[in-house]
Design brief:
Layout (H helix, E strand, L loop, with lengths): L1 H19 L5 E4 L2 E4 L8 E3 L20 H8 L13 H11 L8 H7 L3 H37 L1
Parallel strand pairs: 2-3
Antiparallel strand pairs: 1-2
Length: 154
């Protein structure tokens, strides 16, 4: 019983001490929290690596690029009426001049301004959807050429 009482006292003391230990590199300034920085510029600013299993991003009004397929299959888009799929030759011309994809920030822009994960993921999804359309078009062309070749051989 005496050992049990000592163990309880020891555990209680450790828990009190642990709760009072100040966390290093954690700062609060103007109702903003900084980890690894004394000058947080957003609600939570982390200067360092974050290890997590998952990040959930609320889109909060962001435009998901379903408009790419909508425009391709219906010839118009209610989601984004201004969207136009560029031709591959127009993309090639743009890349030759700017050395990055249209609509994607350049390496210098990203280096100086950083980028929003939400926005970049949506831009990359738009590019994936565009690539899918180009692939569909190429497959149609391949199938047509195969058909013509088969007709010539007969």
């Amino acid at each position: 019983m005496k050992n049990l009482a000592l163990l309880v006292i020891l555990l209680f003391t450790i828990s009190l001490t642990a709760q009072r230990t100040k966390i290093k590199n954690l700062y609060q300034n103007d109702n903003k929290i900084g980890i690894g920085t004394k000058t947080p510029d957003h609600l939570l600013t982390v200067k360092g690596t974050i290890h997590t299993r998952e990040v959930l991003v609320d889109l909060d009004g962001a435009l998901v690029p379903d408009y790419v397929f909508e425009k391709y299959f219906t010839n118009s888009s209610e989601i984004n009426p201004d969207y136009n799929l560029l031709s591959l030759s127009a993309i090639e011309t743009y890349i030759k001049e700017h050395h990055h994809l249209p609509g994607i920030p350049s390496a210098n822009e990203i280096k100086s301004e950083g980028f929003s994960l939400k926005q970049m993921n949506l831009l990359l999804l738009e590019k994936i959807e565009e690539l899918t359309i180009y692939t569909i078009e190429q497959q149609k062309e391949i199938d047509l050429l195969k058909e013509k070749l088969t007709d010539k051989e007969e």
